[in-house]
Amino acid sequence: MNWIAVKSIYTFEMARFFRTITQSLISPVLSTSLYFVVFGAAIGSRIQEVEGISYGAFIVPGLIMLSVITQAISNASFGIYFPKFIGTVFELLSAPVNFFEIVLGYVGAAATKAMFIGLIILITSFFFVDITILHPVWMIVFLVLTCISFALIGFIIGIWAGSFEQLQLVPLLIVTPLVFLGGSFYSISMLPPAWQVVSHFNPVVYLISGFRWAFFGSADVPIVTSLFAIAGFTLLGLAVIWWIFRTGWRIRQ
Amino acid sequence: MPDIVEITNLRKAYAGGFEALKGVNLKIEQGEILALLGPNGAGKTTLISTICGITTATEGTVTVGGHDTVTDYRQARSMVGLVPQEINLEPFERVVNTVAFSRGLFGKPTNDAAIEKILRQLSLWDKKNNQIRELSGGMKRRVLIAKALAHEPRVLFLDEPTAGVDVELRRDMWEIVAGLKADGVTIILTTHYIEEAEAIADRIGIIAEGELLLVEDKDKLMTRMGKKQLVVQLTKPIDALPTSLVSDSLALSDDGAALIYTYDTRAERTGITKLLADVSDAGLILADIETKQSSLEDIFVGLIKEGAA
Fold it and tell me: Dmax over Cα atoms in chain B, in whole Å?
């Protein structure tokens, strides 16, 4: 293992994040506050309680997941697309590193950033609602695994993308709908039965459900299923990336 | 000197079927400067990219310091530095950070003294905290070289280091290359400036349409392939060559004021003595005599034409 290379990529990527730390922090704090105002106060005041939890608190895990998933994807996809776009990727390809080390560096940094933002949102939400976290360790486990698996997906998107438009396409057309329909702002049990069935094909449902369980102890799907789903996600992402580097798809001619 | 890079039957065909390298064999000696000369699209960049691992070979092997670049890529690649043709740099990064990043990427532990030495060597030390976008084009090229040298490679590939660079900067670049050679770095550079190969290379390889037409010691190449010309200036211009002088190797200059005699330095007899005697017999009076070695450019153009024929 070329650990020095992993560390170099990781710190280089993190430096980019800290260079723009103000934007990196202000925007999630602001958007979370807006969600609380709109969903928590305006709409939430008419919803009262979901599964015995105030609506304002109920949406916190979903809100965190929404941001974490979006951030993990955008950071990881940009992280690898940018060197491709400006041409510095030649250095990665000619360096004595293997695919696992490159992924560890880029995905690790993207996951860390997403995690960071997730925690900031959690802290922000303490100012708006009363939350107690029933299973803090599991909460962290779900958060970390979600960050990693979606950073892997982001990395794949970044390698696949041939333009900035394509870079935005998958998050916009696939990920955002999946996250919104994945129960970020509602319990799956609130849906008509037919849509409940459809929802079970949405992988994000399992993540949000598991994450919410870590907070409140109630879940849409069994917690073990959630864990399997997220582990499966991570493995799938790793497998695709392994294949990409093996074949040189989109990166090495 | 032992060979540091060995390329055996290297072939590269792109997905579209285009064959960029058609079985290249080449041995590069440790410590030499080898210039790969060829027109655009000859396969120079593909050759370098394949050695460095940016493109994968269709067939054939490359070893660096005895390490195969595919099976033993970690050892091989850590010995190699690459300066690409395009200025590929992150505009918002600072010079010192991007050079330190390159060092780390190649697995070398942080070493501020080594980075400082490289930056000073390339006259970049004053600019170490500048963002790359603030630098001039020439400075950016230096940053690329600094990045390639950051892990102290034994072999440095320079892909057209002076393409689109002004004369002064080109000379700077040559000095840098000479300095690296003095430090024991083996240098392979591609260029389509013949002048450049002539000025700095020890050996010259000529590449066209994916084939290495020849690789030879520069001086030997020049003498072997080189024709010499003897220019005899006359005191008075003449209209035509006297019949006693007419031959294939003698021509009259356009203004009629000089005789141009082309001869082969390898020939047993150059025919100069006879020529001068004949000139004197023809009653022509000499004003001056000079000899000219044909340049690498003439050799190059000749070879490319031969290849095309």
Answer: 78
